[in-house]
Design goal:
With 209 residues, the chain is α+β, with helices and mostly antiparallel strands. The protein has one domain: Peptide methionine sulphoxide reductase MsrA (Peptide Methionine Sulfoxide Reductase, Chain A), CATH 3.30.1060. The radius of gyration is 24 Å and the shape is globular.
């Protein structure tokens, strides 16, 4: 019994000393990382939307796909009929410490016409509707405030749908990075390039270097 107390005292001293030096108890606050967040956006042809959002600082990925419909695993041809209920969307993953959702939504409302129901230019059908699909409860009010804030830029009412995200179906491989890989195609030159130019001139400060 006489050996236990000195040993306990020695162990206590070692524990306190190592705790003071920080060698055995890491600073948990310094190890915290910010989780990536997701928002899914419909703004007409997903080729255009993807080209815009993949160039924003803090966005790690912009993936073209389909959301908001009533059948599983839809393909492009099915979605184009307008009968599946899906919208062409881009799922955006971003670091909120680098770019806020409010900024992303200002980009969204600036780079398409949110006042035309089920239409963007010559693209007509419910698959081209303006939509914000939120992935966390707090994103819904942020989206509504963004809509209200951007209404002043339009004479007609904004008709953007704001709803909770449902199953996301990634589009076929040939739709991914379409503008990057097909920038010289007539559609890209006529439709996407002017949109990209407007975006870059308006939001120069958030572009990737």
């Amino acid at each position: 019994m006489g050996v236990v107390k000195p040993m306990a005292a020695l162990l206590s001293f070692i524990f306190l000393f190592s705790g003071c030096t920080g060698q055995s108890q890491p600073n948990l606050s310094s190890m915290e990382t910010t989780a990536e967040e997701t928002i899914t956006l419909g703004a007409g042809c997903f080729w255009c939307v993807e080209a815009v959002f993949e160039s924003i600082q803090g966005v790690s990925s912009a993936t073209s796909g389909y959301m908001g419909g009533h059948i599983k695993n839809p393909g492009y041809r099915e979605v184009c009929t307008g009968r599946t209920g899906h919208a062409e969307v881009v799922q955006v993953k971003y670091n909120p410490l680098e770019v806020g959702l409010d900024v992303l939504l200002d980009v969204f409302f600036t780079t398409h016409d949110p006042t035309t129901l089920n239409r963007q230019g010559a693209d007509v059908g419910s698959q081209y509707r303006s939509a914000i699909f939120f992935h966390a409860p707090e994103q819904g009010p942020i989206a509504q405030r963004a809509l209200d804030r951007n209404q002043a830029a339009y004479t007609q009412p904004i008709v953007t749908e704001i709803t909770e995200a449902s199953d996301f179906y990634k589009a076929e491989d040939y739709h991914q990075a379409y503008f990057e890989l097909n920038g010289e195609a007539p559609y890209c030159q006529a439709i996407i390039v002017p949109k990209i130019q407007k975006f870059r001139s308006t939001f120069e400060g958030i572009l990737k270097h």
